[in-house]
Amino acid sequence: MSELYYSVDVTWYDLKKKESFLVEGWMFAPDAKTIKTVVFDQDGKEVPSKISWKERPDVETARQDIGVSGPVGFRLEILEMPKWIKGLKYLEIQAFCQETKTILARLENREIRKTMLDSTIIYEVDVKQLLETQLVVQGWFVDMLGVDRISVMDEKQKKISCEIYRTVREDARVKYADYIEKNHEVGFTIRIPRDAIHTSRVRVCFESKLGQRSYWIDVKEMQRESTKAGRLYNVLRPGKFSENMEYIREHNLGNFVDYVRRTVSQEYSNYSLWVKNHRPDKNEIQKQRKHKFGYNPKISIVIPLYNTPVKYLKQIVDSIVTQTYENWELCLADGSPDQTVEKYIRSHYRNEKRVIYRHLSENKGISENTNAAVAMATGDYIMLSDHDDVVEQGALFEIVKAINENPKIDILYTDEDKISMDGKIYFEPNFKPDFNPFFLESNNYICHIFVVRTSIMKQIGGFRREFDGAQDYDLILRCWEATSADRICHIPKVLYHWRCHPNSTAANPESKRYAYEAGAKALDEHFARRGVKAHAEITHNLGIYRIHREVLGHPKVSIIIPNKDHTEDLETCLASVTEKTTYDNYEILVVENNSTDPNTFAYYEKMTERYPKTRLLTWEREFNYAAINNFAVQEASGEYLLFLNNDVELITENWIEQMLGICQQPEVGIVGVKLYYPDETIQHAGVIIGLGGVAGHIFSGVSRYEPSYVGRAIMPQNLSAVTAACMMMKRSVFEQVDGFDEKFQVAFNDVDLCMKTTQEGYQVVFTPDVELYHYESKSRGVEDTGNKQSRFYQEVYRFESKWPDILKKGDPYYNVNLSLENGNCNLRDYMS
């Protein structure tokens, strides 16, 4: 009799065949020539199966004691598993060796189902956010069997009523391209009303015909962590002592204190309190009422009405009537089929001569109704408002104050937030940047409040009905075209509250998809009017557009890569650029500087042969990043310069075309891109001046797939600076600003270059549509010596001395209401 040695290593469900349950392992009998396997159910009925064999060198090495040799690894395929699973209690896998039976495994029904579920239901939760009115959960879910249902349950197994809508998730589609159709909506957003949650935890159920997988959310813990005290306890609780001490040993006590401060920094859970603390008090209100401006323009607030509920109508009209600035008129154009709204207005505001009402003969839609209200206006400026929102009491005062500070202003816009249906809770504030053209061409970030000089409104012809749904977006784009950026003013105060209806685009973007199609059309016409060869594409993040810009001509691009040793990094970089780049008119200049490893020079000897577009330059002085790049530019022959670190790896194949499409625009000087750490978190999505002290990366450490604050991590936008780890620049502009400032030997030289570029009137643009991995300063190391730290602080002082105004006033592409302690766009503390 021959003894059978065996091990069952893994069981799994074949996703491609969708019918086979697989069991893998190894078995070996020293004296047996053949081993037969049979699978039986609980009734002794044979279940169809087949086995294949393969080499297992690991087993041969580990089990030399029994003389293992030959193909001992097996894969047992149990066929037609969905057919058997229904009435199955268990399966028994038997092996027969010289008439001796061995039971290799007994698989219970629940084990088989769990394995099949884990293989067929794949999901990922990207975002969990506990807001004041709702719990928002976002992610994606793929059911390989095609059933694809989602529900939400509480701990008592009671179904929770909530909104669930689906979107296309390109990242998931690429990951599981064999199983997901191109436009299949595997993404999900779940909005669970907080008043519908009655247990400490809820679970999201991902359902298949085989069963379901659950994702549990601890709501009570999220509530606790939403307070500063709760977050502080979570960081300093006894169970974290060892981890915290390890952090202190590695990073020092000062950095640990900074880490604690960032962790407990103000977030949005108590935003309503923030609103109350930032409102003018009674004394300030009285001061505003008594204030005498040198110029008192009349502001015409235009509002189209249609079956407006009286309680909301009262709130919007009252919020105008009680304004602290008095030279205004309210123009109401009513397309309602009955007189309910008219009776209310005439009875409650008959003594208010500044409220002008007109009942339209018919409802012509949002654009034509608004045009009717505009036709009633006699003011110097037109202000837009919806019929059921709320305007802050001091809004007009702030607008007129800004106009007095700069009488040339043609357009003004403010920050905004959302308000619950009952008007009691404020949430999701949108703290906007100053005028940001590329951001506006990605989404209508301006929205409310929007104020425009009346002459411009007449010049462009008002609203266009063919853009209903995105009529405001179309209007804003045309107003921008009729003026210049220096005549557009942003007021960084929340002066407008957008009421969040369950079916409004404020609450559920899917409810008005036609609006986004109109938005894409508005952008296409905007580009055509400006002579820009580009078109807009609706993305799965509705309201956000991807812009495809054509490359003009076939300009040469010079890619400049400084390098010191670390040839493995350089090889990864060069290989990815050479193998993936779809653009052909480029050269690569590798700048050798101070390498000491002989293998580096051996690598260089073969480099130009292996990568024909590559040239080797040698920098013979001490390391100075700015000087090295300036030196390389003198040797470059390209019309466009592309500065690149040696420790990056390309992801986006058409990266050069994407960057050129932006950099070729006459107003653009520099383009930066999105960089990731190897763990798929963001390393760079732009630089904010003042962040962390001098300048810092926004959204660093956030998931690659997370849209982040108001979607800023996934939209092109103007910024004050980007990193030169991957940065394209017009050569003409580089020469105009005299290149890198060589006094910034290591730090801030790229930020300084960007600042000089904007100072000359050119724009710096970040695009997330170009992606690379960045292995973060491996080649240079950290500032870990006295000399390095001394140099770093000298460069900090130089930057602060050179650019004091922006550090004092704040980055125009950020917002003064957002924290500078970290890059997550948290609120500044409401006490500050």
Mean pLDDT: 87
Low-confidence stretches: 502-507, 777-784
Q: Cα-atom Rg, whole angstroms? A: 32 Å
Report the portion of residues in β strands: 25-35%
Protein described:
With 832 residues, this protein is α+β, with helices and mostly antiparallel strands. It is 31% helix and 29% strand. Strands 27, 28, 29, 30, 31, 32, 33, 36, 37 and 38 form a 10-stranded mixed sheet that branches. Strands 16, 17, 18, 19, 20, 21, 22, 23 and 24 form a 9-stranded mixed sheet that branches. The protein has a 4-stranded antiparallel sheet with strand order 1-2-6-5. Strand 34 and strand 35 form a beta hairpin. Helix 7 (241-251) crosses helix 8 and helix 17 (471-481) packs parallel to helix 18. The chain is globular. Mean pLDDT is 87; it is low at 502-507 and 777-784.
